[in-house]
Protein backbone atom coordinates (compact mmCIF):
# COMPACT_ATOMS: atom_id res chain seq x y z
CA UNK A 1 0.00 0.00 0.00
CA UNK A 2 1.30 3.47 -0.85
CA UNK A 3 1.25 5.94 2.02
CA UNK A 4 0.45 9.50 1.02
CA UNK A 5 1.21 12.73 2.84
CA UNK A 6 0.25 16.25 1.85
CA UNK A 7 2.15 19.47 2.49
CA UNK A 8 1.02 23.08 2.15
CA UNK A 9 4.16 25.24 2.35
CA UNK A 10 6.51 27.72 0.69
CA UNK A 11 9.43 27.19 -1.68
CA UNK A 12 12.87 27.97 -0.26
CA UNK A 13 15.00 28.36 -3.35
CA UNK A 14 18.16 26.68 -2.07
CA UNK A 15 16.27 23.50 -1.24
CA UNK A 16 17.46 23.38 2.37
CA UNK A 17 14.11 24.33 3.91
CA UNK A 18 10.50 24.79 2.79
CA UNK A 19 8.49 22.46 0.60
CA UNK A 20 11.66 21.07 -1.02
CA UNK A 21 12.88 19.80 2.38
CA UNK A 22 9.38 18.51 3.18
CA UNK A 23 9.06 16.46 0.00
CA UNK A 24 12.62 15.10 0.30
CA UNK A 25 11.84 14.03 3.86
CA UNK A 26 8.62 12.30 2.79
CA UNK A 27 10.57 10.47 0.11
CA UNK A 28 13.32 9.55 2.57
CA UNK A 29 10.71 7.93 4.82
CA UNK A 30 9.01 6.09 1.96
CA UNK A 31 5.90 8.26 1.71
CA UNK A 32 4.52 9.71 -1.54
CA UNK A 33 4.36 13.49 -1.16
CA UNK A 34 1.76 15.83 -2.62
CA UNK A 35 2.46 19.56 -2.33
CA UNK A 36 0.66 22.89 -2.55
CA UNK A 37 2.85 25.99 -2.85
CA UNK A 38 1.97 29.08 -0.79
CA UNK A 39 4.91 31.43 -1.43
CA UNK A 40 8.36 31.68 -2.96
CA UNK A 41 11.40 32.66 -0.91
CA UNK A 42 14.60 33.49 -2.81
CA UNK A 43 17.60 35.74 -2.31
CA UNK A 44 17.47 39.39 -3.27
CA UNK A 45 20.66 40.76 -4.86
CA UNK A 46 19.26 44.32 -4.43
CA UNK A 47 18.93 43.84 -0.70
CA UNK A 48 22.21 42.38 0.52
CA UNK A 49 21.11 38.90 -0.61
CA UNK A 50 18.43 38.93 2.09
CA UNK A 51 15.25 36.93 1.56
CA UNK A 52 12.90 37.99 -1.22
CA UNK A 53 9.34 36.88 -0.42
CA UNK A 54 6.58 36.53 -3.04
CA UNK A 55 3.17 35.15 -2.04
CA UNK A 56 1.24 32.88 -4.43
CA UNK A 57 -2.17 34.30 -5.38
CA UNK A 58 -4.89 32.97 -3.05
CA UNK A 59 -6.96 31.61 -5.96
CA UNK A 60 -3.95 29.65 -7.22
CA UNK A 61 -3.52 28.14 -3.76
CA UNK A 62 -7.20 27.13 -3.74
CA UNK A 63 -6.78 25.61 -7.23
CA UNK A 64 -3.75 23.57 -6.17
CA UNK A 65 -5.64 22.33 -3.11
CA UNK A 66 -8.57 21.28 -5.30
CA UNK A 67 -6.22 19.46 -7.72
CA UNK A 68 -4.44 17.63 -4.90
CA UNK A 69 -7.51 16.60 -2.93
CA UNK A 70 -9.59 15.61 -5.94
CA UNK A 71 -6.76 13.40 -7.25
CA UNK A 72 -5.79 11.69 -3.98
CA UNK A 73 -7.36 10.60 -0.75
CA UNK A 74 -5.35 12.78 1.63
CA UNK A 75 -5.97 12.80 5.37
CA UNK A 76 -2.58 13.72 6.83
CA UNK A 77 -1.26 17.20 6.06
CA UNK A 78 1.68 19.32 7.14
CA UNK A 79 1.27 23.10 7.15
CA UNK A 80 4.53 25.01 6.71
CA UNK A 81 5.10 28.64 5.80
CA UNK A 82 1.90 30.46 4.84
CA UNK A 83 3.30 33.98 5.11
CA UNK A 84 0.33 36.36 4.80
CA UNK A 85 -3.14 36.72 6.34
CA UNK A 86 -4.70 36.33 2.84
CA UNK A 87 -2.92 32.99 2.40
CA UNK A 88 -4.00 31.91 5.86
CA UNK A 89 -7.64 32.71 4.96
CA UNK A 90 -7.63 30.57 1.83
CA UNK A 91 -5.79 27.67 3.51
CA UNK A 92 -8.24 27.74 6.43
CA UNK A 93 -11.20 27.63 4.02
CA UNK A 94 -9.61 24.78 2.10
CA UNK A 95 -8.82 22.78 5.24
CA UNK A 96 -12.42 23.18 6.40
CA UNK A 97 -13.68 21.49 3.23
CA UNK A 98 -12.12 18.09 4.10
CA UNK A 99 -11.82 15.68 7.02
CA UNK A 100 -8.28 15.25 8.38
CA UNK A 101 -6.82 12.51 10.52
CA UNK A 102 -3.80 14.68 11.36
CA UNK A 103 -2.88 18.29 10.69
CA UNK A 104 0.75 18.97 11.65
CA UNK A 105 1.32 22.71 12.02
CA UNK A 106 4.87 24.10 11.89
CA UNK A 107 4.00 27.67 12.92
CA UNK A 108 6.55 29.47 10.74
CA UNK A 109 5.63 33.12 11.18
CA UNK A 110 7.57 35.17 8.65
CA UNK A 111 10.90 35.07 6.87
CA UNK A 112 13.52 37.80 6.93
CA UNK A 113 12.35 39.34 3.65
CA UNK A 114 9.03 40.50 5.11
CA UNK A 115 8.40 43.62 7.16
CA UNK A 116 8.74 42.87 10.90
CA UNK A 117 5.15 44.06 11.51
CA UNK A 118 3.91 41.24 9.29
CA UNK A 119 4.75 38.70 12.04
CA UNK A 120 2.03 40.10 14.28
CA UNK A 121 -0.71 39.92 11.63
CA UNK A 122 0.42 36.46 10.63
CA UNK A 123 0.51 35.31 14.25
CA UNK A 124 -3.02 36.54 14.92
CA UNK A 125 -4.39 34.95 11.74
CA UNK A 126 -2.57 31.63 12.37
CA UNK A 127 -3.93 31.47 15.91
CA UNK A 128 -7.50 32.27 14.91
CA UNK A 129 -7.78 30.34 11.67
CA UNK A 130 -5.21 27.53 11.41
CA UNK A 131 -4.60 26.52 15.04
CA UNK A 132 -8.13 25.12 15.42
CA UNK A 133 -7.30 22.47 12.78
CA UNK A 134 -3.95 21.45 14.26
CA UNK A 135 -3.66 18.04 15.90
CA UNK A 136 0.12 18.47 16.29
CA UNK A 137 2.00 21.79 16.55
CA UNK A 138 5.82 22.10 16.50
CA UNK A 139 6.93 25.60 17.63
CA UNK A 140 10.61 26.48 18.11
CA UNK A 141 11.62 28.65 21.06
CA UNK A 142 10.83 31.92 19.25
CA UNK A 143 7.40 30.72 18.13
CA UNK A 144 6.69 29.11 21.53
CA UNK A 145 7.34 32.41 23.31
CA UNK A 146 4.84 34.18 21.07
CA UNK A 147 2.20 31.44 21.32
CA UNK A 148 2.58 30.91 25.09
CA UNK A 149 3.09 34.56 26.04
CA UNK A 150 6.24 33.61 28.01
CA UNK A 151 9.09 36.17 28.02
CA UNK A 152 11.86 33.63 28.41
CA UNK A 153 12.28 29.96 27.58
CA UNK A 154 15.69 28.88 28.86
CA UNK A 155 15.29 25.49 30.52
CA UNK A 156 13.53 22.16 30.08
CA UNK A 157 11.02 23.27 32.74
CA UNK A 158 10.28 26.34 30.56
CA UNK A 159 9.77 24.09 27.51
CA UNK A 160 7.29 22.05 29.56
CA UNK A 161 5.42 25.15 30.73
CA UNK A 162 5.27 26.48 27.16
CA UNK A 163 3.98 23.13 25.88
CA UNK A 164 1.23 23.11 28.53
CA UNK A 165 0.19 26.69 27.76
CA UNK A 166 0.11 26.07 24.00
CA UNK A 167 -1.85 22.86 24.51
CA UNK A 168 -4.53 24.98 26.18
CA UNK A 169 -4.96 26.81 22.83
CA UNK A 170 -6.39 23.63 21.30
CA UNK A 171 -3.94 21.25 19.57
CA UNK A 172 -3.97 17.63 20.79
CA UNK A 173 -0.17 17.36 20.80
CA UNK A 174 2.47 20.06 21.27
CA UNK A 175 6.18 19.59 20.56
CA UNK A 176 8.26 22.54 21.75
CA UNK A 177 11.74 22.38 20.21
CA UNK A 178 14.64 23.64 22.32
CA UNK A 179 17.13 23.09 19.50
CA UNK A 180 20.26 25.25 19.74
CA UNK A 181 18.31 28.06 21.43
CA UNK A 182 18.19 26.32 24.81
CA UNK A 183 21.48 26.64 26.75
CA UNK A 184 23.34 23.41 27.54
CA UNK A 185 24.94 20.51 25.69
CA UNK A 186 21.74 18.86 24.43
CA UNK A 187 19.11 19.58 21.77
CA UNK A 188 15.98 18.94 23.83
CA UNK A 189 12.37 18.84 22.61
CA UNK A 190 9.31 18.12 24.75
CA UNK A 191 6.06 16.49 23.66
CA UNK A 192 2.87 17.12 25.64
CA UNK A 193 -0.26 15.13 24.86
CA UNK A 194 -2.47 16.85 27.41
CA UNK A 195 -1.49 14.40 30.17
CA UNK A 196 2.09 13.31 29.88
CA UNK A 197 5.36 14.97 28.98
CA UNK A 198 7.90 13.02 26.93
CA UNK A 199 11.40 14.46 26.60
CA UNK A 200 13.49 13.84 23.46
CA UNK A 201 17.13 14.75 23.90
CA UNK A 202 20.31 14.28 21.86
CA UNK A 203 23.75 15.89 22.16
CA UNK A 204 23.81 19.10 20.10
CA UNK A 205 25.55 18.86 16.76
CA UNK A 206 27.39 22.19 16.75
CA UNK A 207 25.91 25.40 18.13
CA UNK A 208 24.65 27.08 14.98
CA UNK A 209 21.04 27.29 13.95
CA UNK A 210 20.49 25.04 10.92
CA UNK A 211 18.02 26.30 8.33
CA UNK A 212 15.58 23.60 7.34
CA UNK A 213 15.84 21.57 10.55
CA UNK A 214 12.35 22.58 11.65
CA UNK A 215 10.80 21.78 8.25
CA UNK A 216 12.47 18.39 8.13
CA UNK A 217 11.44 17.55 11.70
CA UNK A 218 7.74 18.39 11.16
CA UNK A 219 7.72 16.69 7.74
CA UNK A 220 9.16 13.52 9.27
CA UNK A 221 6.45 13.54 11.96
CA UNK A 222 3.86 13.94 9.19
CA UNK A 223 5.30 11.07 7.13
CA UNK A 224 5.30 8.72 10.12
CA UNK A 225 1.70 9.66 10.97
CA UNK A 226 0.77 8.95 7.33
CA UNK A 227 2.21 5.45 7.82
CA UNK A 228 -0.18 4.96 10.73
CA UNK A 229 2.27 5.45 13.59
CA UNK A 230 1.25 7.21 16.80
CA UNK A 231 2.51 10.70 17.61
CA UNK A 232 5.10 9.65 20.21
CA UNK A 233 6.70 7.20 17.80
CA UNK A 234 6.49 9.71 14.94
CA UNK A 235 8.33 12.33 17.02
CA UNK A 236 10.97 9.74 17.98
CA UNK A 237 11.63 8.86 14.33
CA UNK A 238 11.68 12.56 13.38
CA UNK A 239 14.19 13.38 16.13
CA UNK A 240 16.53 10.64 14.92
CA UNK A 241 16.21 11.64 11.27
CA UNK A 242 16.78 15.36 11.87
CA UNK A 243 19.82 14.65 14.05
CA UNK A 244 21.33 12.43 11.35
CA UNK A 245 20.55 15.05 8.70
CA UNK A 246 22.28 17.79 10.71
CA UNK A 247 25.27 15.52 11.35
CA UNK A 248 25.52 14.68 7.66
CA UNK A 249 25.39 18.33 6.67
CA UNK A 250 28.02 19.32 9.20
CA UNK A 251 30.40 16.51 8.28
CA UNK A 252 29.93 17.09 4.56
CA UNK A 253 31.12 20.72 4.89
CA UNK A 254 28.14 22.07 3.03
CA UNK A 255 29.02 25.17 1.00
CA UNK A 256 26.53 27.40 2.86
CA UNK A 257 26.74 27.93 6.59
CA UNK A 258 23.08 27.87 7.41
CA UNK A 259 21.65 25.65 4.72
CA UNK A 260 22.14 21.94 4.70
CA UNK A 261 22.89 20.70 1.25
CA UNK A 262 22.97 17.03 0.42
CA UNK A 263 22.11 16.16 3.99
CA UNK A 264 20.92 12.72 3.00
CA UNK A 265 23.55 11.86 0.45
CA UNK A 266 26.64 11.14 2.54
N1 LIG B 1 22.53 21.81 16.37
C1 LIG B 1 21.59 20.89 16.58
N2 LIG B 1 21.93 19.64 16.97
C2 LIG B 1 21.01 18.68 17.15
N3 LIG B 1 19.69 18.89 16.98
C3 LIG B 1 19.29 20.11 16.61
C4 LIG B 1 20.20 21.17 16.38
N4 LIG B 1 19.50 22.28 15.98
C5 LIG B 1 18.21 21.91 15.97
N5 LIG B 1 18.06 20.63 16.36
C6 LIG B 1 16.83 19.87 16.42
O1 LIG B 1 16.22 19.97 15.14
C7 LIG B 1 14.81 20.04 15.26
C8 LIG B 1 14.32 21.36 14.65
O2 LIG B 1 14.58 22.38 15.59
P1 LIG B 1 14.80 23.93 15.34
O3 LIG B 1 16.04 24.11 14.57
O4 LIG B 1 14.76 24.58 16.68
O5 LIG B 1 13.57 24.32 14.49
P2 LIG B 1 13.35 25.59 13.57
O6 LIG B 1 14.07 25.30 12.28
O7 LIG B 1 11.87 25.61 13.45
O8 LIG B 1 13.93 26.76 14.31
C9 LIG B 1 14.54 19.87 16.76
O9 LIG B 1 14.40 18.49 17.03
C10 LIG B 1 15.80 20.42 17.39
O10 LIG B 1 16.01 19.97 18.71
C1 LIG C 1 9.63 28.78 2.53
C2 LIG C 1 10.19 28.55 3.89
N1 LIG C 1 9.56 27.69 4.73
C3 LIG C 1 10.04 27.47 5.97
C4 LIG C 1 11.15 28.09 6.45
C5 LIG C 1 11.60 27.81 7.84
O1 LIG C 1 12.63 26.86 7.83
P1 LIG C 1 13.21 26.19 9.14
O2 LIG C 1 12.39 26.63 10.31
O3 LIG C 1 13.10 24.71 8.93
O4 LIG C 1 14.62 26.66 9.21
C6 LIG C 1 11.86 28.98 5.62
C7 LIG C 1 13.07 29.64 6.10
O5 LIG C 1 13.73 30.36 5.39
C8 LIG C 1 11.36 29.22 4.32
O6 LIG C 1 11.99 30.08 3.48
TrEMBL record:
Keywords: ATP-binding, Kinase, Magnesium, Metal-binding, Nucleotide-binding, Transferase
One Pfam assignment: Phos_pyr_kin
Molecular function terms, GO-annotated: hydroxymethylpyrimidine kinase activity; phosphomethylpyrimidine kinase activity
Catalytic activity: pyridoxal + ATP = pyridoxal 5'-phosphate + ADP + H(+)
InterPro entries referenced in this protein's UniProt entry, alphabetically: HMP/HMP-P_kinase_dom, PM/HMP-P_kinase-1, Ribokinase-like
EC number, UniProt record: 2.7.1.35
Superkingdom assignment: Bacteria
Keyword Transcription regulation: no
Ranges of residues in domain Pyridoxamine kinase/Phosphomethylpyrimidine kinase: 14-251
Ligase keyword on record: no
NCBIfam families: HMP-P_kinase
Cited function: Catalyzes the phosphorylation of hydroxymethylpyrimidine phosphate (HMP-P) to HMP-PP, and of HMP to HMP-P.
Family: Belongs to the ThiD family.
Protein name: pyridoxal kinase
Organism the protein comes from: Oerskovia merdavium
Gene that encodes the chain: thiD
